[in-house]
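User: Watch each token:
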Amino acid sequence: MSSRKLIEKIQAKDAKIGIVGLGYVGLPLVLRFSEMGFPVLGLDIAEDKVEMMTGGRSPIEHIGHDRLRAAIAAGFEATTDFSRAGEADVLILCVPTPLNKYREPDLGFVVDTVESLLPHIRTGQLMSLESTTYPGTTVEELAPRIERRDFTIGEDYFLVYSPEREDPGNPDFTTHTIPKVCGGHTPACLEAGVALYGSVIDRVVPVSSTQVAELTKLLENIHRAVNIGLVNEMKIVADRMGINIREVIDAAATKPFGFVPYYPGPGLGGHCIPIDPFYLTWKAREYGVSTRFIELAGEVNGAMPEYVVDKIKGALNDRCKSVRGSKILVLGIAYKPNVDDMRESPSVFIMEKLRDLGAEISYSDPHIPVFPPMREHHFDLSSVEVMPEALRQYDCVLLATDHAKFDYDMIAEHAPLIVDARGRFDRALDKIVNA
């Protein structure tokens, strides 16, 4: 099948879309393609997730069951059977790209996924990688594997890189309103990729290569990581000076040009910002480049959980208490407000540090009723209800993630000591310690 035939099939909405990885990136794509009239097949290795979705239940809190059920009614299927990949005209890969224990890129999920698909891919398909990665991944890791099947990329098989730009729980932007960058392995690949995403996304931004698209994604997140590192460092300086950094930021934000407000917190979380910069620092070494600026921001941001723990130590010490034996309630363990996403959450690192110091830890998070299984973090805990009498039993309450569902006035009234890492409480109150 030529690119023209594939494009015609996409334009007619007859192309079957295979989404590989049904998480925070893959599931929104499933729903968007389905809502736009495409037949969709979902592939995932997690049997429990596939079973849940087959039963019409969304595994992600901010994605409603009704939207998933509508997709199922329109023909969407979820399966763990990768042999069905040949049914799809398009395969979109949305799998994790974490770091290993040495903070180096771990492409295991990407490579294993492609290897699982290889026996079942066929001529005429388009494969798109959306996982964040270092420049060169598509050319160095995906293309050679596809060519092992004796396919000629750009003639009988098509390959693009189009980085995901999901922001879970953000009501202002949806999958189709966020512009989509797309780079192709060849011009024919790019043409097919633009046709694919242009059928469901309001604006597609074509770039000259997959490497440009890969580096674009990294720049976006490194920009945020560096600026957050700067404001976290400014917070520490301002705190020593007795200055409210959030008041400073709000005042600076009145400047109508040349300043973008970033706000400090207890550390970086999520699937992108704590991880993506290190993909570039690792790849840059291959070219003899030291990314000192990026690595410094990583050091500053990585130290913030320890900074928060130190503030808790100091606050308890001022009340003639030690961390050991203290009952500490952590408010919010998701990495950002109003979602159930715990990936790389700084709250968890803080909880571990406090537990290691001998504290008795509890948490409350309206979006995470039970502490889930995680690869590197283990707590046998369930979310506790935030009630006046319960609050009075804690030696310290830490606001780590400022969910909208928390009653901040009630918490301020009844908690004996609050360490505020999000700037939600009135710092004039004696019981409030800003972190």
In short: The chain has a mean pLDDT of 95.
